[in-house]
Amino acid sequence: MATQFKLAAMGHTMETGRVVEWHISEGESIDEGQLLISIETDKTVVDVNSPVSGVLLKTVGQVDAEYDVGDVLAWIGDAGETVPDQPVEPDPKKQSVSAGPRVTPVAQRLADRHGINADSVQGTGPDGRVTKEDVQRAIDDGTAPAKAEDTSVPAGEVVPLSGIRRITAERLSTNWGVAPHVSEGIEVDFSRFESYRIEHDADWQEKWGAALGPNDLILAATAQVLKDHPDLNAGFIDGAICRYNEVNLGVAIDIDAGLVVPVVRNADKLSIGEIARTVRELAVKARENRLTPDEMEGATFSVSNLGGLGIDWFTPVLNPPQCGILGIGRIQRVPRYSSNEIVARDLGTLVLTFDHRLIDGAPCARFLSQLRGVLEAPETLLD
What we know:
- Strand 10 (234-237) and strand 11 (240-243) form a beta hairpin.
- It is elongated and about 85 Å long.
- Strands 9, 12, 15, 16, 17, 18 and 19 form a 7-stranded mixed sheet that branches.
- By secondary structure, the chain is α+β, with helices and mostly antiparallel strands.
- Helices cover 27% and strands 26% of the residues.
- It folds into 3 domains: 3-94, CATH 2.40.50.100; 105-160, no CATH class; 181-382, Chloramphenicol Acetyltransferase, CATH 3.30.559.
């Protein structure tokens, strides 16, 4: 009997998913555990493997359409088995408009690479949609119409938003228009930590199995200080403030596909070495596209670091429904006047962006001041 392949929940908050690409065509054999489909959730794009071995008898999940968790997307079984003819109709309100009504995103990208006017290709998909196969057939047949040159705008490549980039655009655009963003910054002296690092780097490597950097220190300190500021370790949910019981730090990581924010869970209960190892493991998985949905869920506060790219400071954008996000700039050795002499200090700027609906500027200033105090006297975190 054929097996229904249904859209599964890929995280605690997932209610719908969008079909990005089928990696197996109808009629092809597939093994259990083989890559079958890519699904876009509200946080990332997830590659999903087949739960069984057999033949992909029928796909009813349309590329670029959004479905509810539990909807049937395909049937897998033995060759020749019959399956229902009635497809699952996606909600038209959930259809993506990023690539236009007639062309799937995959087909549009293929057409753009070859300079083809995809809108003029004969579509064989549902409701006449142009699929990747339609564009490839037109290329192979030599019938693909060239894209007309538009002289009204400067020449350039048009890249439709897709995958993580589109998710980020939609989420942050929505949140920017809803949450009143306010940012505050503070200068922090990391000289004491830098001295400790030079002296104890080998010891830290032996104790924790990882070299510690300022980012690790900031994450560990932030997790501890947030416990004293529950209104920052919070979210705006259903018109109310939700103060979270756990401190789960979302750590922004830049990968080729865009920005992902995996989560260090219960960061306030971890040592600085454990945080360092966890972040490095998550970064490797992110760049190898191996993050699981659970590793992307549940952040209560986020941290983004652009210091490694030479940025002095920036104002990060909130990740809804979180109340706060901390932006880390680069640390520079600069001259400062102290005790009647000029001394070299390792200084960096931290910027806190917060949701003004949930918290005011004064308590956020106190959070930053307390955080600076911990960072400038880091012994308790390093012992």
